Amino acid sequence: MTSLIRVTLFWALFSVAAYALLPQSVHAQSVQSPAEFLGYELGERFTRHHQVIDYFNHVAERSELVQLEPYGTTYEGRPLLTAYVASPENMDRLDAIRQTNLSIAGLSEDQETDNSNPVIVWLSYNVHGNESVSTEAAMKTIYTLIDPDNSEAQSWLSNTVIIIDPCLNPDGRDRYVNWYNRTVGAFPNVHGIAREHNEPWPGGRTNHYYFDLNRDWAWMTQKEVNERVAHYNTWMPHIHVDFHEQGVNSPYFFAPAAEPYHEAITPWQRQFQEMIGRNHARYFDQNGWLYFTKQVFDLLYPGYGDTWPTYNGAIGMTYEQAGSGRAGLGIITQEGDTLTLKDRIEHHYMSGLSTIEVSSENREGVVNEFREFFERARTNPEGPYKGYVIKGSAHRDKRNALASHLSKQGITYGYAQERQSANGYSYSTGASSRFSIEPGDMLISAYQPKSTLLRVLFDPNPSLSDSLTYDITSWAMPYIYGVEAYASTSAFTVPLNSQPQESNPKPETRNPEQIYAYLARWESFNDARFLADLLKHNIKVRYAEKAFSLNGHSYAPGTLIITRTGNEQLKEQFDQRVVDLAEKHDRHLTPASTGFVDSGPDFGSGDVHYIEPTRTAVLLSDPVYVYPSGEIWHYLDQQLEYPSTVFNARSFDVEDLDDIDVLILPSGSYSSVLTENTLEELVSWVRQGGRLIALENAANFFVGRDGFRLTRKTNVVKTDTLAQKQRRFADRSRLGASDNVTGAIFKVNLDTTHPLAFGYRSPYYTLKRTSTVFDLLENDNDWNVGVIPDEGHLSGYVGSLIEEAIDPGLVIGIQSMGRGDVVYITESPLFRAFWYNGRLLVANAMFFRQ
Ligand SMILES: [Zn+2]
């Protein structure tokens, strides 16, 4: 007995040592299958994210074919990682493969002529958290790929590097999975009416801040996407698959994608989508599985996990399995079949492997075409424009924000050193003209590896081969950032200089007793962040409602005045604190030794207002719409960084507003929350001095309600009766598009003398996403601060029926109500957090009250 124990112990010790010594292939045998590791068969239940991470760690520890690379964490702190799957030979030179690939794309210093580099396939799972089959399929896929007995997989690995991201949205996935696991009973119910098939608000699709991460690749406003794009750019894969799920009655969608395709997509990219689709079809046909291609999922908007990789030289694709947050472990489809989680796993598993197979079989062609894509980009970029010019007149903060966005996307730029003239398209007028490039203008040449992405991001008016698209039809960067810009038809050379990032000099504070006040300009969102920080630090701040001049400098309305008076409680710390915060936010402070100005109101005038530290509240949760809720929540938390109170809309009680100055209502459907009684109480809260900010559909809700003066244009959708009678059944979905606005850009003229528009230069550009148009306010006590003028439509698709009815239309208005007021902002200024130039507007509405 004793000796037996000793022998066992010996073997145990030996195996520990052997773990480090023996060839790794032996260990491959010891990799557990997902079922062995998790204790249940895949498809029997949903796997929590930490278990998925544990499994990938297990695989990486035991298999020489797998290495993990963490690339970030989510807002809720869950890890993000990719697994590399490669042959032992390729794994040994993994970083060399990566660098060779970057040099093939011209994205590194080296010139690479080696044609034998592996094809790189990147598989992205579960970007929508409740489309939760994907991560389960990822576990099955990686286990198959490392199986030493699977000779087919091993042959793929000889020329293919596979990058698996098992879960792009861990916070959303766990929100779904934890909800489902605690909701399902002992007997999963396959009837769609059961509770387990009906997720509560906000559902698991989005990330922590309710953002759709499959709309954010081009903008990187969300932590997860920001980290992922940085990681992606270090690899630049050739093939990228984004795994999704769709409605339970739509069996399966794979490439090729639907029209419209952006014009920048190459014939080869179209062709290879087709090849991949045909390979999938072979397997799906063999199994008798239903599927469709070329419908619904188009390739236009650049924020998707298929278009964005495509504009980055890859073959980018979306695969959609029937299921999503409704399907649970099993659900009856309209045909009466039961769609199970196991079925769903099989389909995504099959399309994943089929993708790797086609890629491996066509390695040479794929890599060569990838090389050519980037060679063309550098030497002979397609499209009408050879570069883009951001005028130096644009505000420094806006230009810097745009520049940082471009850098993160891997797009290079420089600054003009001499004057030259060029021809091109003016984003502000929508016309082509001659213009001049001045020293200091920001220059972005189309002759660079990321040229296609650049072209799409600056496309003044994306051409639509089909009016039916899944998303917005316009997004040009100059409108987003509110900068004057041109798309140039003539090429120019870009000096390799970077912007003189002149930071603001620190003010002189040696003799604080001589400083009466500090002045800070109000010109960009960074100024609002600075103000928010001052208020958080209990510093009293005022703002000038009218322009003034002092010591030969003129100051626009909105200028912040931070007087020593009122901040006595800070004693000698006052100057240091103000100066430190200005430095933190890179703001220019001007010390003033007097409150007696050269022209305009003095600092003690009634035209200089004290800014109360705004106590802000937001209504979130059902029936407020999910995405707009997230946009305002993310804005307050992550962009403005200003603490606020979030109320649950369902249990909202106006009495809770006793200590609140500003209530923000994001877009939503309010009739069940703001009932007649509640509305009356809300009006009386406003009358006592509250400010109500109603965004988008929240503004729409107040049309026709007692006390609210907003009205809607009723003539917007006109019916052409003859056309109506002659319409064809087959055209029915397209007819709907003629009274539609799917996201188009309009000019908005601003009254910059109103505090709501302080810091802006007119015009502002808005993304218009609905066909609802509002009249101008008519009461003498109300102000139309932002109005779509005649000919205001600049870019994007607008249905012919509403094009003419749209102007003038109210976008930003304010009506007084007793001692308070109601601000209407009818189109989101915070759309997907990327509409940068709208951010200041919300800060104005929060802080500038009188
Ligand atoms: Zn999806």
Class by alpha and beta content: alpha+beta
By DSSP, the count of extended strands is 34
Largest sheet: 10 strands, mixed
Cα distance, first to last residue? 89 Å
Measured by DSSP, the beta-strand proportion falls in 15-25%
Q: Uncertain segments of ≥5 residues (pLDDT<50)?
A: 1-28
Helical fraction equals 25-40%
Radius of gyration based on Cα positions? 29 Å
Cofactors, ions, other ligands: zinc ion
Rough shape?
Answer: globular
Task: Count helical runs.
Answer: 26
Mean pLDDT across the residues is 92
Please explain how this structure is put together.
The protein is α+β, with helices and mostly antiparallel strands and 850 residues long. 32% of the residues lie in helices and 19% in strands. The chain has 26 helices and 34 strands. The strands form seven sheets. Strands 25, 26, 27, 28, 29, 30, 31, 32, 33 and 34 form a ten-stranded mixed sheet that branches. Helix 7 packs across helix 13 (341-361) and helix 11 packs across helix 13. The chain is globular, with a radius of gyration of 29 Å. Bound molecules: zinc ion. Residues 128, 131, 214, 244 line the site of zinc ion.
